[in-house]
Amino acid sequence: MRVVKFGGSSLANGPQVQKVLNIILAEPKRRVIVTSAPGKRSDSDIKVTDLLIKYANCVLQKRDYQAALNQIWTRYQEIADFFDISQNSLQPLKQELIELPLTNYANYDFLMAAFKAHGEKINAQLLTLILQKQGVAARFLDPKTAGLLVSDVPNDAAVLPQTYQNLKKWRHTQELLIVPGFYGVTESGQIATFSRGGSDITGAILAQGLQAELYENFTDVNAIYASDPRIVTHPQPIQVMTYRELRELSYAGFSVFHDEALIPAIEGQIPIKVKNTNHPDLPGTMIVPEQHFHTQNVITGVASSNHFAALYLHRYLLNKEVGFTLKLLQIFYQFNISYEHMPSGIDDLTVIFDKRQFTKELRQQMCQKIQEVLNPDYLEWIDDYAILMIVGEGMRNKIGVMKLITSSLAKKNIGLHMINQGASRISIMLGTKQADAPIAVSEIYHQFFN
């Protein structure tokens, strides 16, 4: 049995949904389908999830929301019209949208979560109607009925362990199950969503809970590529890669999967295949456990991201002072800031952050506190910072990889702020200036994929 998730672009309009139907019916093993909310039909379009957020904000601000509601329903009506679904069948779906403002919620955050979740829920119900009209024994399976229980964090929920036991009873159902992605239900019955992009998480949870042989994730790309096509022209598609390779590359900008989506699949050791809804006959990319994996390539991919910043701190005899790092971490905790890496020397250290956590005021307050408590000789905030990740299972047993990387960058006069190799020996992290990052990615790619 396979669990299959379709992204928002795959379900954006009638013609795209027809492609989804063809894919579902082409393989009898595809028994559990996870839906996203309708995505963009064009670059200038608006995702249904964003329209639902607009709808929710109108309700919260006590403004007229009829225009937002009409805009949302029009998207579903267009898909329904494409398949000639009757108004009688659609009325319960529309009524559910209309009644969202009238429902009782624990607080405003749970209201927002419920509104957002209905993008996936209505789409799953509509897809079920379409399949039933075509004679398919399909069933809409709500997360509450399925037993998909999550924590009480309304817009960043985590799956609860008992969910996997609850899901087992659906393993041998004869019906085609259509499950909305992106959300679960708390133990008190409130809807709570995963962080945005969380339909991928739903698919992985179901794949583990149902012990699927494969989790197929259909999106709008042909494969995962060894580098960003916006940086490298026609990069090599990756045929097979490991879970941890994808996790490492996702850290530096690979955006095919939601960052947390692989965790349930990894725990369940479920292989994942990424494919293109528009070109389903292409092989795509298979993501597998590390055991018994063999590769012919030294590196699998190279990626970069600019959403980092660094704090450089110098103080003589820093390495002799007991508790120095503890005091620094306590300051981060005080300001609710997480750090990514902390390479250090005998008299200095650099702390690398995801700078999206900061406002200008928060950064200034934190640096001032560090100055007061630790009294460094020199403190500098470095905003011009990019991280590169060079990743590959083949690096573990290859001598001279670092030489090949640094020599290719030296030819382009690219300096490095930081070099760090992970304990697993399958990744090397580099810090550069932001302007140098795309050049560095291109040079490293061509060094190994010539």
Automatic annotation (TrEMBL):
ATP binds at K5, F6, G7, G8, T219, D220, Y225, R230. Substrate binds at T49, E120. Pfam families: AA_kinase, ACT_9. GO terms for cellular component: cytosol. Residues 390-450 form the ACT domain. GO terms for molecular function: aspartate kinase activity; ATP binding. Coiled coil: none annotated. Keywords: Amino-acid biosynthesis, ATP-binding, Diaminopimelate biosynthesis, Kinase, Lysine biosynthesis, Nucleotide-binding, Transferase. Its EC number is 2.7.2.4. It catalyses: L-aspartate + ATP = 4-phospho-L-aspartate + ADP. It comes from the Bacteria. GO terms for biological process: diaminopimelate biosynthetic process; homoserine biosynthetic process; lysine biosynthetic process via diaminopimelate; threonine biosynthetic process. InterPro entries: AceGlu_kinase-like_sf, ACT-like_dom_sf, ACT_Aspartokinase, ACT_dom, AKIII_YclM_N, Asp/Glu/Uridylate_kinase, Asp_kin_monofn, Asp_kinase. It is an enzyme of class 2 (transferase). Catalyzes the phosphorylation of the beta-carboxyl group of aspartic acid with ATP to yield 4-phospho-L-aspartate, which is involved in the branched biosynthetic pathway leading to the biosynthesis of amino acids threonine, isoleucine and methionine. Belongs to the aspartokinase family. This is Aspartokinase.
